[in-house]
Amino acid sequence: MNKRIWLVSRHPGAQTWLKQQGFQGQQIAHLDIDTIAAGDIIIGSLPIHMVVALTLKNAEYWHLSMTIPECWRGTELTPEQMQLCQIKLQKITAQAEDFF
Questions:
Q1: I need a labelling partner for 67 at 20 to 30 A (CA). Which of 14, 59, 81, 90 fits?
Q2: DSSP class of 44
Q3: Beta carbons within 8 Å of 23's beta carbon, 6+ residues apart
Q4: Is 84 exposed, middle or buried (0-12, 13-18, 19+ CB in 10 A)?
Q5: pLDDT in tens, 4-63
Q6: What are phi and psi of 65, to 5 degrees?
């Protein structure tokens, strides 16, 4: 099985930060779940329903997590600002049950 690494972000600061950390992979702005195979590694900030879908495909998801102050929300952050926001990667798995 060939593991592929997908770096999912439309934000230049996040793309640069990931490169600075030594992550290499396919850089994309949006993820098409149908392109993901078991064993693939996805790094980004995805909505929970997509994380569930990745878990069901036996792919690995690493969430780009940080605490952004209100005054910086909605702006493009530099890698240096992201460091100030305590950026980190967290491995996430998820499952869902339908209620309705």
A1: 59
A2: E
A3: 5, 7, 43
A4: middle
A5: 999 999 999 999 999 999 998 999 999 999 999 999 999 999 999 999 999 999 999 999
A6: -115, 140
Alpha-carbon span 100 to 97, nearest angstrom: 9
pLDDT of residue 30: 94
Token pair, residue 41, equals 């590694």
Contact 67, 85 (CB under 8 A): yes
Give the span between the Cα atoms of 19 and 7, in whole angstroms. 10
Q: What is the pLDDT at residue 99?
A: 74
- Confidence class of residue 1 from pLDDT cuts 50, 70 and 90? low
Rounded-to-integer distance, Cα 57 and Cα 80, Å: 34
Give the 3-state secondary structure of residue 18.
Answer: helix
d(CA 54, CA 51): 5
SS3 6: strand
Residue 26: alpha-carbon gap to chain centroid? 12
